[in-house]
C-alpha cells in the first residue's frame, strides 16, 4: 500500500469466572478442551481489558503488542494463531471486494490495558484474548458473530472464548478434530438473572505459581481422578448447571458451583507432583460460606476458585448483607486479603 494511513479500532472485554471448570486439553495445538464448561461474565466496570488494534504501512515490519505499557512477545503459537485466522478472514473479504484497503498485509500494533492485576488468578488471559480478537475483528470490519470469534479467541486462551458474551456462557467442547465446533454459546443473557452478584476476595495479587496451561497438562498426564471428572462428573454438572441457570434456581447453581470447584481442586491435588492453588485464607473463606449457608437454613452463597487462591463468591442481591457483609467482617481479621465487591455480570460481552 502506498499511503501511511493508520487504521484503528478499540474495544473492551470482560472477565468471566467459570462455575463448571475447563481443565484439560485434548489437543494442545488447537487448544481443544477435554470437557465443556460454563461461566458467568463479570461487570466491565470492575474488571476488563481495553484494547486498541491499529495497522499501517508506517508500522513494523513486525506486529507488536503492549500490555499495561510493557511490550509482549507475540511470536508464541497462540497469539500467532489468532493473528493468522483474523488475517485470513480479512483477506477473504479483500479478495471478494478489491476496493477494500489491503489491511491483512499490514503490520498490527495492539495496545491493551487491564484495570486489575494481570495473572493474579483473575482470568486476565480470558479478557485479554477476547479483547484482542474483537479489536482486530472490528479493525478488519469482519462480519463475524461472537460464536465465530470465540473459535479464534479459544486458540489464544481457552477461557477467552467465553468472554465474547455477557451473562451466562457455555463453551461446548465440540467433537470435530479441527475444533470448528469447539465454541462459546450464550446460555442466558445477563438480563435473565440480573440479581446475581459476585464478591471477589483478592487473597493474593501475585502471579500464580503453576500456570493453568502447564498445570492442566500435568493433570491430564498424571491424575487418575481426572478421567472420571471429564467423563462423568463434568457432563452431569453441565446439565444441572444449565438447567439451574435457565430456572434461576440459586440453590442448585450454588451447590454445583461449589462441588465443581472442589472437584477441580481435588484433581489438582491428585496431580503428580500435586498442585496447590488454595491457601489457608481460601480454606477459611470456604468455611465462612458454609457457616453463612448453615445460618440461613438454605444455600445463599457459593464459592469457587480458579488456578489461584482468590475466592469468587456468588450470591443474590437480596442476600448481600448476609453474604458479603459476613465474609468481609469474618475474613477482615485475617492477614493477607483484600475484599473487593463486584457485580457478577455485564449486560453485554465485548463491545461489538
Ligand atoms: C481454572 O483458559 O487460562 O480458570 O487455555 O491454557 O490459556 P489456557 O488456559 P486458561 O484456563 C482456565 C482454567 C480455569 C477454569 C476456567 O476458566 O474454566
Please summarize what this structure is.
The radius of gyration is 20 Å and the shape is globular. The strands form four sheets. Strands 1-6-9-7-8 form a five-stranded mixed β-sheet. Strands 2-5-10-11 form a four-stranded antiparallel β-sheet. Strands 13-14-12-15 form a four-stranded antiparallel β-sheet. The protein is α+β, with helices and mostly antiparallel strands and 352 residues long.
Q: Would you mind describing this structure in some detail?
A:
The chain is α+β, with helices and mostly antiparallel strands. It is 37% helix and 22% strand. The protein has eight helices and 15 strands. It has helices at 77-96, 124-139, 146-156, 212-222, 225-247, 250-269, 280-296, 320-331, and strands spanning 7-14, 16-20, 25-27, 32-33, 37-41, 48-55, 64-67, 70-72, 108-114, 168-171, 184-188, 196-202, 301-305, 311-316, 338-343. Strands 1-6-9-7-8 form a five-stranded mixed β-sheet. Strands 2-5-10-11 form a four-stranded antiparallel β-sheet. Helix 5 (225-247) packs antiparallel against helix 6 and helix 7 (280-296) packs antiparallel against helix 8 (320-331). The model has no long low-confidence stretch (mean pLDDT 92).
Amino acid at each position: 500500500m502506498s499511503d501511511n494511513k493508520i487504521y484503528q479500532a478499540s474495544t473492551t472485554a470482560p472477565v468471566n469466572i467459570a462455575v463448571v471448570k475447563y481443565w484439560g486439553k485434548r489437543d494442545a495445538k488447537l487448544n481443544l478442551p477435554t470437557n465443556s464448561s460454563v461461566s458467568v461474565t463479570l461487570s466491565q466496570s470492575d474488571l476488563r481489558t481495553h484494547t486498541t488494534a491499529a495497522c499501517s504501512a508506517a508500522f513494523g515490519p513486525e506486529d507488536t503488542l503492549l500490555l499495561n505499557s510493557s511490550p509482549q512477545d507475540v511470536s508464541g503459537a497462540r497469539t500467532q494463531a489468532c493473528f493468522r485466522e483474523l488475517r485470513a478472514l480479512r483477506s477473504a473479504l479483500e479478495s471478494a471486494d478489491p476496493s477494500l484497503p489491503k489491511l491483512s498485509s499490514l503490520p498490527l500494533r495492539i495496545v491493551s490495558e487491564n484495570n486489575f492485576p494481570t495473572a493474579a488468578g483473575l482470568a486476565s488471559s480470558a479478557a485479554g484474548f477476547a479483547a484482542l480478537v474483537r479489536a482486530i475483528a472490528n479493525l478488519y470490519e469482519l462480519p463475524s458473530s461472537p460464536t465465530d470469534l470465540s473459535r479464534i479467541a479459544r486458540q489464544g486462551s481457552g477461557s477467552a472464548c467465553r468472554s465474547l458474551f455477557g451473562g451466562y456462557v457455555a463453551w461446548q467442547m465440540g467433537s470435530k478434530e479441527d475444533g470448528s465446533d469447539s465454541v462459546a454459546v450464550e446460555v442466558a443473557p445477563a438480563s435473565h438473572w440480573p440479581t446475581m452478584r459476585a464478591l471477589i476476595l483478592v487473597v493474593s495479587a501475585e502471579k500464580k505459581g503453576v500456570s493453568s496451561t502447564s498445570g492442566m497438562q500435568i493433570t491430564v498426564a498424571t491424575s487418575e481422578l481426572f478421567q472420571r471428572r471429564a467423563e462423568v462428573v463434568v457432563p452431569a454438572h453441565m446439565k444441572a448447571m444449565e438447567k439451574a441457570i435457565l430456572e434461576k434456581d440459586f440453590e442448585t447453581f450454588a451447590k454445583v458451583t461449589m462441588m465443581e470447584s472442589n472437584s477441580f481442586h481435588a484433581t489438582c491435588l491428585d496431580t503428580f507432583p500435586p498442585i496447590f492453588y488454595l491457601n489457608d485464607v481460601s480454606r477459611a473463606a470456604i468455611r465462612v460460606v458454609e457457616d453463612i449457608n448453615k445460618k440461613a437454613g438454605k444455600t445463599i452463597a457459593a464459592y469457587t476458585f480458579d488456578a489461584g487462591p482468590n475466592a469468587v463468591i456468588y450470591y443474590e442481591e437480596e442476600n448481600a448483607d448476609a453474604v458479603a457483609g459476613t465474609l468481609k467482617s469474618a475474613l477482615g481479621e485475617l492477614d493477607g486479603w483484600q475484599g473487593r465487591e463486584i457485580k457478577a455480570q455485564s449486560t453485554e460481552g465485548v463491545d461489538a
